[in-house]
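Protocol step 6 of 9: fold each sequence in the batch and record its structure tokens directly after the sequence line. For illustration, a two-sequence batch is reproduced in full.

Sequence one:
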Amino acid sequence: MKASPEHGRPLAPAGAGAASPSAPAPAGAPTTGAVWVNGVLVAPGTAVLAADDRGFTLGDGLFETMRAYGGRVFRLRAHLERLRSSADRLGIPIPPDLEDAVRATLAASGLDSAAVRLTVSRGPGEGLAPPEPARPTVVVTARPYAPAERWYAAGLRAVFARGRLNEHALTAGIKRLGYLDQVAAQAEARAVGADEALFLDTEGHLAEGAASNVFLVVDGALWTPPLSCGVLPGITRGVVIELANAAGILVREEPVPPDALHAADEAFLTSSLRELVPVVAIGDSPIGRGQPGPLTLHLLDLYRGRVHAELESGGVS
């Protein structure tokens, strides 16, 4: 994407007399969100996408979805590390100032609770072969976000997707722009009144949700598919494993047969926006008692406590 000068203002570098990118937005700042495109803050809705941008024409790019609490992104550096690792695999050059760009966009939005998305494409170019040199397009958006409390009070219903997740794909485990399989699976789930579609891998093991990682609770222990099943190394997934280990809760990262969901005591999904969400049924079959389970809710409390502690202390994020 690109922006004309009249649509935005360049970001002044830190230390150049401008406000710090993480400084609070001034009184009267907009609360509908903000957009940052290749070094320029633009009004939402005015950004322009180049017709030959490979993110648009080929899905040739990456993205990260993050959540801000109190005007700060939780585990921002972990998200950026994952993005850079994926970019290295694909040979997409990543600018060094992404952390400042995210903080500046969030500050400009005036939002405390926000969904923040960072998108990086390989930039403009024609044909399948990557252009040399690549000129990546970088976009950051911040929009208002508030989770639905019914997710945690009542839980979600999931169904298995008809398609499979290919753990042998060149892009396995990468949060890439080409998400059409997930879009189609989620549409099928919604058509039958479900909230999430769950993918199996090509070997028939449980892999991940269309927009989430998956955990089962069995006999007081956690069981989650390993990364070798092609699942995304979710940031929230990693925090849950950290919390469980610290609390003395056994975590099994082993292949999960799909029938194990029906026999589990509890199940939940993890994602940066939704945190931990109970899954209470697969299709018409309840999981456990068919209601959010105690260990799931306990881990949700621990997770929210970790978010608060890290952001208050200015620690890991």
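Sequence two, same batch, same settings:
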Amino acid sequence: MKTDKETDLYPLLTTLRARARQPFSFSATRWPYFLFPGLTLVLLSLGLLDRAAVEGQAARPAALVLAAERLTDLTTAPWILSVALTLALVCFAAATRLQTLHGKWRALICGYQALYVFTAVGASSLSVNIIKHLLGRARPSLIDLSGILNFRPGGWVYDYASFPSGHSTTAGAIFVALALLKPKFAPGFVSLAIFFAFARVAVGAHYPSDIFAGLFYGAWVSVAVACAFAHYRLVFATAGGRFPHPCC
């Protein structure tokens, strides 16, 4: 015998698989808010910060560098993807075994949220790795060869894969994804994204322009994927072309 609460949840559960009435809106990704500030910071960094960041590396506080070295790999894509995919599969499996409709509903919501994080981080990580190797910018350790604008396009070499920063892209993607899922904690998530991105400068792996490009790109990919999910009423909604927001 279903309770009134369980009966009311049934229409909500079925909408997870329903196609949205409005088509996917590229404008809902708010791409100018990511492209133009990001591009401005990249250009300013190229002119004012990149060389100074390398030349001032020896003067950085040892404690900050040590913390950056120990924490920087927290924003590597493989382990985040593994955790997100595992969580999604566990939740979807639980949804088939739980007895109450409310339990099934919560398990499905959690599963789709984890699938969203997996898709956002996976899409940003895969695409940025292609972009950075096609551009082939040399890392700061090679600045003495030909300055901050040393490019070797098309190679698949670590030393020439600096722009955009892959770690910063993942940081932008994962923390903005979490901010979209939990808007109440968005300021904290954005702060963490900035911290982990700058950790790549602290350890000497990237220029400031690399991390700004990665941060804004990863953040935008998470928003774009949220809009794609909203098209199928999964996790998010973008009614009237609005910025994606949690719908359940």
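Proceed to step 7 once all outputs are recorded. Observation for sequence two: The mean pLDDT is 88.
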